[in-house]
Structure formats: C-alpha cells, structure tokens
C-alpha cells in the first residue's frame, strides 16, 4: 500500500540492511539541511529510542511482565478476551481502527500517524491493556522493534513523558485522512494519562569492543544488523576497527521476537528473506561458508571451526541481549571470546540518549557531519 511523504524504509533500517548514516548521508548529500533536517531527525528518533532503552533495560522487562499479566488476564476473563479479539480482528465498528488493524496484519506496515491513532484508541477508547497492543504491533510490523515500539506505546499512554499522553481526535483523523474516516462521536477525547509507573534505574552502556586481528574469527549475524560489509569499514577516529579475516560465518535464527505469541506472516516472511539475503552476502566475506545456527548450537559451531573469537553485533535490549548473556560465558568456558561490536554511529549517539529527545537533538549535527561529508566526496 503506497503512502505519501514517508520513505517506508523502516523494515530495512530496523535490520540494518540499510543503515542510518547511509540514509542520513544520502539525503544530506543531495539536499540542504533546511529541506531534509526534519527527515534526518525522524531517522534519529530510532537511534534515540534504542539508546534510551539500552540505558533503561528495566523498561523492557517491566513491559514483558505487564504483557505476561495481560495474557493471563485474557485466559481468565472471557469478556476481556472478547474485547481484545474484536480489536485485533478489526471488528470494533470504529471504521478507521478496523481499517488500520486490517492494514497492519495484511501489510506489516502502518504510517506513523495511523500507529499513533491506533495505539491511542486502543488505550483510551477501547480501554485495553497497552502491553497487549504493543505486542500485537511488535508481532505484525515488519519493522517491529523493541525500542521504538515499546517506548512509542509508553509515550502515547503518557508513561514515557510523565503526564503527557496522546489523545486521538476525530476531527484530526478526518482532516489528515481527507475525509476517508470521520469517527466523530466514537472516540474518547478526554482522558487522564495512564497511571505513572516508577522511574527506571539508568544503567551504564556497554563499552564498544574490538575484535583482535590475527585470531581465528567467526562472524555471527543477527537480525539487529545484517550488513557486515559496512560494519567494519575503516573510518577515521578512535572507534574504527581493523578488518578481520572470517574463518566462518553463521546467521543466528531468531529464537524469540520479543513475544510469547506467534509472529505475523508478513513480518516473518520479511525477516526470513532478510536473513537469507544477509547469508548470501556474508558467504563472500567468509572462507568457511555460512551456516544457520540456533542459540543452542553456536558453541558447537564455534568449536567445529576452532574459533578463538565470535564477533557479533551488539546484543540489543529486548532482542539478542538475553541470548548473548548466556552465550558469552558458554563460549568463554571453551576459551572463545564473544566480541559484541558497536557501530560508530551507535557509540557516538547512545550516550546522549539518557534523557529526553530534545537534549539528544542537539547532538544530531555532530552525528551526521561525517556521513554528509562522506556522501559529498563519493
Ligand atoms: C505506537 C507506535 C509504535 C511504533 N512501533 C515501531 C516499531 O516497532 N518499529 C519502528 O521502526 N518504528 C516504530 N514506530 C515509529 C514510526 O512510526 C516508524 O518508524 C515509521 O512510521 C516508519 O515508517 P517510514 O519508514 O515510512 O518512516 P519515515 O517517515 O520515512 O521516516 C524515516 C525513518 O525514520 C525513522 N522514524 C521515523 N519516525 C520515527 C519514530 N516516531 N520513532 C522512531 N523512528 C522513526 C524510521 O527508521 C523510518 O524508517 C512506532 C510509532 C508508534 C506511534
């Protein structure tokens, strides 16, 4: 389904088939920053949410606890289950909600406005637990991302920016959809935000690690970063990495997409195709070919290739971190080091994402200065 004024690039950026500096550099190389600054800022929202969640992992664990409780409630409360199914099946009778629910499931994509309206109607009109809605999005969006999704839902509910919530307004929906929908009289337009939850403890960011050159090295790709060709490019500055010879390469099967429920068909197909594409490209980089590995088989794979280090993209909160928390010590027991690399973009940006977006925004110029220059000289 076509949409005006948006790139629809998010599934590719989410899995880093296309990277943030590549997108920002491409537009800054062709347009004045006064013309494309807003778009670059949108790209940086993703970076901001990831950096914030990396430093507040409690937001993910609390969301997962809330989701588990919501799922238990669905088992126990037939009326709640009926309201939930009515919403996710797009049978609420609110035409805009039902159309976007169907679009989400059929296409794996929604415009940002539709995501905001849908989440707001879910929380304030349908009065359903927000965690169940966030889970529904995460499972069906091809760009489903633990950081952008969870924190955007928290923001709509008024939890992320304390006391500031987003209420969908019928007149606004009628205006922006150019009359396709007019839900006047159907929405709750006055409501208090969700009850505030306790603040999260800020945790230090992991320091960027570097692979050792000269060691037998295995490249392990995950859904968080499927573009190894650009991950190790030697760039000036203290965060550059030396090129490594890859003895073997493996692509990590997605064990858990952040939900105990099944992923939507479109999102699953996108991820499968993305992993296959990355595996084909990685085969050129590695002497020993590419294998697909489950979290449980990585240690055997590394030992079979006599690896001394396994190099993987940073294990993100809500994504690969729990797998790597177990894998690191399991590899170490066999004298193999797990090295989690960080891209220069992340290492530069994340430390500034500890508070609100406006404080982070001040650093976007420095973050994008490099990629704009690179693109101009290309
Ligand atoms: C309730 C809710 C849930 C969301 N869940 C997700 C999610 O699971 N995954 C996800 O990638 N985005 C999520 N978003 C953010 C945003 O809606 C999408 O990134 C955007 O709609 C993607 O479409 P696009 O590529 O056409 O965006 P464009 O407008 O073309 O923007 C370009 C890029 O900027 C980034 N971006 C734009 N807007 C945002 C934003 N508000 N927050 C973070 N990054 C942004 C994306 O990488 C996007 O591809 C959510 C927003 C809301 C309100």
CATH architecture title of the largest domain: Orthogonal Bundle
Oligomer: single chain
Q: What is the number of strand segments?
A: 5
Span of the ends, CA to CA = 33 Å
Biggest pleated-sheet summary? 5 strands, parallel
The helix tally amounts to 17
Widest sheet: strand ordering: 3-2-1-4-5
Rg is: 22 Å
Low-confidence stretches: 234-240
Please identify the structural class as seen in this structure: alpha/beta
Question: Domains counted in the coordinates: how many?
Answer: 3
Listing every helix as H and every strand as E from the N terminus to the C terminus, the arrangement reads: HHHHHHHHHHEHEHEHEHEHHH
Percent of residues in β-strands? 5-15%
| Bulk shape | globular
Mean pLDDT: 92
Helix amount:
40-55%
Q: Find the CATH superfamily of the largest domain.
A: DNA Cyclobutane Dipyrimidine Photolyase, subunit A, domain 3
Q: What small-molecule ligands were found?
A: flavin-adenine dinucleotide
CATH class of the largest domain: Mainly Alpha
Give a quick set of tags describing it.
single chain; 378 residues; alpha/beta; DNA Cyclobutane Dipyrimidine Photolyase, subunit A, domain 3; Rossmann fold; 3 domains; 5-stranded parallel beta sheet; globular; binds flavin-adenine dinucleotide
3D structure, described in words:
There is one protein chain. With 378 residues, the protein is of the alpha/beta class. Helix content is 52%, strand content 7%. It has helices at 10-14, 20-30, 33-55, 58-76, 78-88, 95-107, 112-125, 130-140, 146-157, 170-176, 228-231, 265-285, 298-304, 321-332, 344-349, 357-361, 364-377; strands spanning 217-221, 246-252, 290-293, 309-313, 337-341. Strands 3-2-1-4-5 form a five-stranded parallel beta sheet, with helices on both faces. The model is unreliable at 234-240 (pLDDT under 50). Residues 6-10, 13-14, 42-43, 45-46, 49, 111-112, 115-116, 119, 137, 141, 143-145, 148-149, 152-153, 156 line the site of flavin-adenine dinucleotide.
């Amino acid at each position: 389904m076509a949409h005006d004024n948006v790139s629809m690039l998010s599934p590719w950026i989410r899995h880093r088939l296309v990277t943030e500096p590549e997108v920002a550099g491409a537009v800054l190389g062709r347009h004045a920053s006064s013309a494309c600054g807003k778009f670059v800022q949108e790209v940086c929202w993703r970076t901001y949410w990831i950096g914030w969640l990396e430093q507040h992992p409690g937001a993910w664990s609390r969301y997962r606890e809330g989701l588990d409780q919501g799922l238990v409630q669905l088992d126990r409360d037939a009326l709640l289950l009926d309201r939930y199914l009515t919403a996710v099946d797009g049978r609420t009778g609110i035409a805009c909600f039902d159309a976007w629910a169907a679009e989400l499931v059929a296409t794996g994509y929604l415009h940002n406005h539709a995501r905001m309206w849908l989440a707001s109607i879910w929380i304030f009109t349908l009065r359903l637990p927000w965690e169940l809605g966030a889970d529904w999005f995460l499972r069906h969006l091809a760009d489903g991302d633990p950081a952008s999704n969870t924190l955007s839902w928290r923001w709509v509910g008024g939890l992320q920016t304390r006391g500031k919530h987003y209420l969908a307004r019928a007149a606004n929906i009628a205006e922006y959809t150019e009359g396709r929908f007019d839900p006047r009289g159907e929405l709750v337009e006055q409501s208090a935000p969700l009850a505030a939850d306790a603040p999260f403890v800020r945790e230090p960011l992991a320091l960027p690690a570097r692979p050792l050159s000269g060691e037998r090295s295995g490249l392990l790709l995950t859904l968080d970063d499927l573009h190894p060709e650009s991950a190790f490019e030697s760039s000036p500055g203290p965060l550059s990495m030396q090129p490594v010879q890859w003895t073997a390469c493996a692509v990590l099967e997605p064990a858990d997409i952040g939900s105990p429920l099944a992923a939507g068909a479109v999102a699953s197909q996108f991820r499968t195709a993305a992993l296959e594409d990355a595996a084909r490209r990685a085969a050129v980089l590695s002497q020993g070919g590419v294998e697909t590995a489950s979290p449980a088989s990585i240690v055997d794979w590394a030992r079979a290739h006599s690896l001394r280090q396994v190099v993987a993209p940073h294990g993100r909160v809500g994504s690969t971190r729990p797998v790597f928390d177990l894998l690191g010590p399991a590899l170490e027991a066999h004298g193999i080091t797990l090295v989690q690399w960080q891209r220069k973009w992340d290492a530069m940006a994340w430390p500034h994402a500890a508070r609100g977006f406006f404080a982070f925004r001040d650093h976007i110029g420095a973050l994008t200065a490099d990629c704009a220059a690179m693109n101009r000289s290309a």
